[in-house]
Specification:
CATH class of the largest domain in chain B: Mainly Alpha
Order of helices and strands of chain B: HHHHHHHHHHHHHH
CATH architecture of chain A: Orthogonal Bundle
Order of helices and strands of chain A: HHEEHHHHHHHHHHH
Structural class of chain B: mainly alpha
CATH superfamily of chain A: MetI-like
Oligomer: heterodimer
Strand order of the largest sheet of chain A: 1-2
Strand content of chain A: under 5%
Structural class of chain A: mainly alpha
Number of strands of chain B: 0
Distance between the termini of chain A: 12 Å
CATH architecture of the largest domain in chain B: Orthogonal Bundle
CATH class of chain A: Mainly Alpha
Number of helices of chain A: 13
Largest sheet of chain B: none
Shape of chain B: globular
Number of domains of chain A: 1
Number of helices of chain B: 14
Shape of chain A: globular
CATH superfamily of the largest domain in chain B: MetI-like
Number of domains of chain B: 2
Radius of gyration of chain B: 24 Å
Distance between the termini of chain B: 45 Å
Helix content of chain A: over 70%
Helix content of chain B: over 70%
Mean pLDDT of chain A: 88
Chain lengths: 296, 286
Amino acid sequence: MPRQSLLHAGRRDGRRPYFYLAPAFLLLAAVILIPLLYALYLSFFKTQGVNREFVGLANYIDILKQSYFWASTGRTLYFTIVSVAAEFVIGLGVALLLSQNFKLRGFLRVMLILPWALPTVVNGVLWSWIFNTSYGSLNGLLLEAGVIDNYVSWLGKPFLAMNCVIFADVWKNYAMIALILMAGLQTISPTYYESAMIDGANVFQRFRYITLPILRPSILVCLITRTMEAFKVFDIVYTMTKGGPANGTQVISYYTYQATFGSSKFGYGAALSYLISFVILLMALAYIRVLRGKEE
Amino acid sequence: MKNSRTKTVVLYLAGAALFLYIILPFLWLIISSISNKVELIAVPPHWWPEEPTLNNYLQLLGFKEVSISAGEVPPFGTAMRNSLLIGCSATLLCVVIGIFAAYAFARMKFRGRDKMMISVIAMRMLPEMALVLPLYMIMVKFNMTDSKIFLTIVYTSFVLPFVIWILRSYFESIPVSLEEAALIDGASRFTIIRKIILPLAMPGIVTTCIFALLTCWDEFLFALIFASTYNAKTLTIAISEFTTRHMIDYGLMMTGGMLASLPPIVFAVCLQKYIVRGLTEGSVKE
């Protein structure tokens, strides 16, 4: 970067950068790095109250043998794929809609920030109330509209409950994707579209050959961040279903939480959290790759 | 001509659908919070309360005794105070520590710079669940259970990587020529940060503060595990605890939800421009 040459050429900084970084890195080491290593150490032990017994990789093997683990992994994958796909489709649609020129646009753009700003826990309790079997507004609404004859127990059946949690998650989180993609759309010069129209490109061709390529980096970043967030999902499951019914919404984070703090299997829990971190780390690497690719 | 008319109709229909999609759940949140206990559980639902009441708000804000039938209601005011205190302290700490780190990353050359930056990004991605257990054991060992200070330190560290990342991108967008001139005049780095970087990056710093504050305000898992009483329990925990008592009082719960959502919503609507810029800076650019 020749632009910064003068600043760097001075060589007058010496150790100063390290002093500037020291407070941040000391804190991160104390609260993130050291605990992380401690968890790795713990994951090789079987804990029973205060007693600890070194068991090597037994915890990891134990996890991989558990059908509960695979079931919750499957649920997490289902949650991640369905919620991210829905959030992306709605988010992109809304971004495209709100970059069109019509009167409601400014107002809707302000509205869009509302679900984004709503705390996740509030989102969870709000939807658990809406989905409530006896008094929930959804059942009331659908019954009055004649769509259903009897009240549906939305959060009472495992698979249905999972989809309801996904619905609630999507309702809040598409907004972030829409906001980011909208900002990306603003960087596209209208002259591209004008010249494409002169060349006779139809709306789909313009989207395919102008909008998508320019939005690509933003889209990738949105997808990766949302995938990581969805894979870690915990708050909304805790507030809506607590993993139930019949473990129907027991995603991997919730399983880890229960194994660790419900059954006090600390070594097992530590090993589990390591497996999750490993998957997230792989996604993070992909993320850094994407960002790097854009800089070049 | 016909084509553009169809387009307008489609646009308005889609706009209306989006409006309803966003507003209906919010409306139900508001309506439930101003309904009394009888109307709240009316079947079929009362779409608009016949006797709207602010009772729930008065109860939660401590202006009115909580009725006995509500059971044991979490001390909402205390929880709100805890959230504010922890959130503001963590944000302040983060930004002060983050400014120096971000400046070093943005403007200085040193060995290991790229590796250190990548480690910061990696820490930002780390799942909270991976840290909860070891931090819990450390907390117990050092006798820090149920402490606002412990929660503040944890929040600070968890938000810090993001703060460093986003501040760095703001600092890099400031032209270096001003700093070069100041360096030639013999100004120290510290003077440069104080006199040039801070004033010019103020919008970025404000945005960063908002993001940090909102992240702390929303945080749930750490508070759930590390706080055992209302000495340290935060707002998000208080809201979830309306469910764990014998009776679920959805009216109070929705009111708690409204009160917890108002500050971030007001923030977000007033500072929307900053937020959208922060979202794109923080996620799209490196």
